[in-house]
Design goal:
Elements (H helix, E strand, L loop, with lengths): L1 H5 L1 H43 L6 H9 L3 H10 L2 H30 L5 H28 L3 H18 L1 H16 L7 E4 L2 E8 L3 E6 L4 E5 H6 L3 E2 L7 E9 L5 H13 L11 E9 L2 E12 L5 H18 L5 H4 L7
Antiparallel strand pairs: 1-2, 1-5, 2-3, 3-4, 6-8, 7-8
Helix pairs in contact: 5-6, 10-11
Length: about 350
Amino acid sequence: MKSLKKYRYYLLFISAFIISSNIHVAQTIDSTNVVVDSMKTATTVTDSLKTEDTPSESMKLIESIVPDEAITNKLSDVFSPAKIIWAIIFLLISFFVIKFINKILSLISEKSARYRITLKGFIPIVRIVAWTAALSIVIIVIFAPPIESLVVVTGSLGLAVGFASQDILKNIFGGIMIIFDRSFQVGDKIEIGEYYGEVLNIGLRSTRIVTADDSVVSVPNGDLISKALSNSNSGEANCQVVAEIYLPPYIDTAKVRDIAIQSAQVSRYVYLNKPIAVIFKNEVNYGKPYLKMRLKAYVLDIRYEFAFMSDMTEITMRELMKHELVTKEELAGNFRQP
């Protein structure tokens, strides 16, 4: 009994350890069972989702992003190789036909100075109408796309072209505005900036004019609709021409006026259905006074503008010296003191 009392504390410690171990093992087994049950539940949910008939929100989003196979097939049918080849052939034929029509109109207009500008004014209109009809036939008849495909392609091309070629679009719209606004037309004499000459062609991107030096200048249509522009004849074959002659301030202006008017009237380029005017203006240059005479008359054809200006100047100066109203020295600027 004494020995049992001696080791009773050791027996109590061992018994407590065994009891706590059993409790821990029981808790571990319970936790394991919970995990297993959770995995079974997850598996069951997954299987139910796989077998579910209605698609989830994520599947709907994916299907909305990926293009429908039917639409892709429609686009491939619309832009088939055969249709593309026929479209190219038709556009080439249209190009040569439009060019031939413009050439015929240009040749006919050159036959008559009276109707030249009127006929040339129809050339840009015919070009735009013809190209619009040709492109409409290509789109509607040859390709014949469905409405939904046409809307998609048109929207995509509109965005791409709008961002990539803003200046080109500005010039194209400028060309259309020039043709329909008719501030000038082919055959007119216009002045834009430092350039002055006859309009040769009004294109969709630029307008070409030929200057007095026989140089062809291309001016962007965007500049023509945004800057000040001067038109000498406004669709008529005739225009006003001004010849300037510097005379001594003491000259007889009455006699000079008569001689100048007669000089303009005898020119072969004059248009007599409009009035001839002579204007004198007193000016001072480098401290020397002089009289500037401006002889204004209308030329029969705008293409003879500079020839008419030279003709009036030569005839007037010759007649003034013939009538001893001026001398060669005075015409050169060496005026005598009155």
